[in-house]
């Protein structure tokens, strides 16, 4: 079991690294570094410029349009007419960039990391199968997680085929929340030790702040869709949508709520103090990095770090909530 817990911890770090890498790809504009998927310009390893045929840009654009018709059709079939129209309109204005080896390799390394994570989740399913007698829920949870990783992989391909259509990028990002949720569930079942005991007041405050946090994440993705249409560095926020102002203000409420939680834990309930203070610092970090994007016009690393720390904070919330559930279920 000790080995399995270490394996899970390592896998979690790797998932965060993958989230950072994915965001780095976006920040450096490398998402279209390889216009096809799973290969890169038809090769398993990014080719050199000499290996590309003369009309490669035209070739990949027509291939992409063919493939995206299916996505447009699917959106229409499930009643998302507006999204289908937006996607069709978006694609009409795209072209294939000329080959850039650095961008191709950046995207390629991200894909390699994604494949490694996929293989390790397969291995996780195998380990949890072996542990099914000790912890019966582990195996089914691992299967769900594997399913969600595969779905993420497919969605990653759709993101490439739809030429980084902003809505698809957001869905891809939001699905990583589901993956983190499932990973936390697995860890909760595998290791129910070190429980904490939140008072009803703390529970209410934590739930409220978690809901605001989720709204903050959704606003962030809205904002990202807006930022994606701008060129870096962003110097003018005057035409930013209302989501920008809400996103800029909500963190102060979040910090007030979690600050109160930390103070309460320090005074009355030491079991949750360490985890709550970690959460508070993570939220401070998200806020500071967010402010740096705004004030210093998206300096290097800021966008990938902003997203990564937001998702680490999401995980920290889940950890606190699930540790508390552990104690109440032990009491029953
Ligand atoms: C608790 C605090 C915060 C959280 C959890 C948070 C979370 C997020 C998330 C999840 C995104 C989407 C990133 C992506 O999809 O790549 C985002 C984008 C953004 N956030 Fe925040 N944010 C916080 C505070 C702030 C603050 C205080 C500002 C300052 C104005 C800010 C400015 C931005 C900007 C400009 C974007 C779009 C930039 C980009 O494309 O990465 N954020 N935020």
Which oligomeric form is depicted? single chain
| List of distinct ligands in this structure | protoporphyrin IX containing FE
State the helicity in percent bands.
Answer: over 70%
Number of domains: 2
Helices and strands, in order, run as HHHHHHHHHH
| DSSP strand content | under 5%
Main β sheet profile: none
| Total count of helical runs of at least 4 residues | 10
Please write out the topology.
Elements (H helix, E strand, L loop, with lengths): L1 H26 L28 H22 L3 H12 L8 H30 L5 H26 L4 H25 L9 H29 L13 H27 L4 H23 L6 H30 L1
Helix pairs in contact: 1-4, 1-6, 1-10, 2-3, 4-5, 5-6, 6-7, 6-10, 7-8, 7-10, 8-9, 9-10
The structure holds protoporphyrin IX containing FE.
Q: How is this structure best described in words?
A:
It is a single chain. This protein is mainly alpha-helical. It folds into 2 domains: 191 residues, no CATH class; 137 residues, no CATH class. The longest helix is centred in the middle third of the chain and has 30 residues. The C terminus is likely disordered. Protoporphyrin IX containing FE binds next to helix 7, helix 8, helix 9 and helix 10.
């Amino acid at each position: 079991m000790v080995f399995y817990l270490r394996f899970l911890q390592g896998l979690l770090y790797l998932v965060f690294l993958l989230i950072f890498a994915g965001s780095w790809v976006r920040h450096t504009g490398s998402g279209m570094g390889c216009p096809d998927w799973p290969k890169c310009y038809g090769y398993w390893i990014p080719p050199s410029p000499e290996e590309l045929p003369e009309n490669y840009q035209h070739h990949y654009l027509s291939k992409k349009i063919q493939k995206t018709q299916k996505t447009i059709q699917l959106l229409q079939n499930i009643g998302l007419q507006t999204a289908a129209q937006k996607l069709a309109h978006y694609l009409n204005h795209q072209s294939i960039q000329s080959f850039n080896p650095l961008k191709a390799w950046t995207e390629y390394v991200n894909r390699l990391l994604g494949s490694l994570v996929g293989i390790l989740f397969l291995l996780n399913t195998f380990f949890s199968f072996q542990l099914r007698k000790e912890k019966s829920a582990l195996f089914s949870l691992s299967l769900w997680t594997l399913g969600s990783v595969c779905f993420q992989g497919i969605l990653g391909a759709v993101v490439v085929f739809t030429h980084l259509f902003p809505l698809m990028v957001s869905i891809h990002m939001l699905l990583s929340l589901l993956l983190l949720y499932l990973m936390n569930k697995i860890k909760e079942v595998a290791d129910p030790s070190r429980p904490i005991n939140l008072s009803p007041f703390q529970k209410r405050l934590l739930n409220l702040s978690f809901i605001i946090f989720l709204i903050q994440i959704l606003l962030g993705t809205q904002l990202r869709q807006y930022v994606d249409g701008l060129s870096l560095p962003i110097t003018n926020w005057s035409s930013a949508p209302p989501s920008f102002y809400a996103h800029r203000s909500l963190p102060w409420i979040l910090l007030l709520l979690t600050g109160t939680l930390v103070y309460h834990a320090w005074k009355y309930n030491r079991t949750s103090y360490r985890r709550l203070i970690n959460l508070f610092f993570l939220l401070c970090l998200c806020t500071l990095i967010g402010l740096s994007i705004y004030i210093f016009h998206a300096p290097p690393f800021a966008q990938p770090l902003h997203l990564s720390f937001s998702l680490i904070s999401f995980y920290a919330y889940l950890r606190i909530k699930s540790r508390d559930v552990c104690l109440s279920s032990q009491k029953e």
